[in-house]
Amino acid sequence: MGRVIFDIETVGADFDSLDPAVAEYLLKWAESEEEKERIKESLSFYPLTGEIVAIGMLNPDTDKGAVYFQAGGEPPLPFEENGIRYECGTEKDVLEKFWHAVKAYDQIVTFNGRSFDCPFIIIRSAVNKLKPSRDLMPYRYANNSSHIDLFDQLTFYGAAKRKFPLDMWCRTFGIKSPKSDGITGYDIKDLFRAGRYIDIARYCAGDLTATKEILNVWENYIKFP
């Protein structure tokens, strides 16, 4: 059964560029300047106020994959590194490449994909007038689901009350965290503004590798046969 891990990187819009009505709505219930700043810095979390700048895909059984990413200016030519092919384009190009590739797999694997990656991809695809090539959100509790969300599995579908990010799981299981090289998800907007597109793409690839290692732990030591 073919399976693929995927992960996205996103960037929020500049708050000052938003439609005034949208900006007013976002700040409507903010009660302090600190809260207003937190809202302005959280625009990358939502597909209505952000966009996808990279989608990474990795087959955990072959260690082959691709990262599709946005790049301004003179875009870099496609290249391959450690089994990952890097290709750039617009957000629409990135999404088209994703939908073309993902339909070939029987099972998709994510970390928190049901809550973040998948809804973001689906809504941004609609914004770009693209139709999904497959269902990214099948029934959550099926024994052989076509979508394995490791965040769901490691929290036992919410039975574990404290929710931890990928970085914490990596540290717990002795896996190299993608954040260990000094980049976090909060840095993506600044990197994008600075034109460091390949750094973003490589960071996305690091998330894929870490997710693959978490998948191995779950399959070998946590998942009940």
Fraction of helical residues: 25-40%
Strand order of the largest sheet: 4-5-3-2-1-6-7
Distance between the termini: 17 Å
Note the overall shape.
Answer: globular
Low-confidence stretches: none
How large, in whole angstroms, is the Cα Rg?
18 Å
In N-to-C order, the SSE pattern is EHHEEEEHEHEHHHH
The structure class reads: alpha/beta
Question: What fraction of the residues are assigned to beta strands by DSSP?
Answer: 15-25%
Describe the fold and architecture.
The longest helix is centred in the last third of the chain and has 26 residues. A seven-stranded mixed beta sheet has the order 4-5-3-2-1-6-7, sandwiched between helices. It contains eight helices and seven strands. Helix 6 packs across helix 8. Helices cover 40% and strands 18% of the residues. By secondary structure, it is α/β, with parallel strands linked by helices. It is globular and about 55 Å long.
What characteristics describe this protein?
single chain, 225 residues, alpha/beta, seven-stranded mixed β-sheet
Give the arrangement of secondary structure elements.
Layout (H helix, E strand, L loop, with lengths): L2 E10 L7 H8 L5 H9 L8 E10 L4 E6 L9 E3 L2 E5 L2 H12 L4 E4 L2 H15 L19 E3 H5 L11 H8 L14 H6 L3 H26 L3
Parallel strand pairs: 1-6, 3-5, 6-7
Antiparallel strand pairs: 1-2, 2-3, 4-5
Helix pairs in contact: 6-8
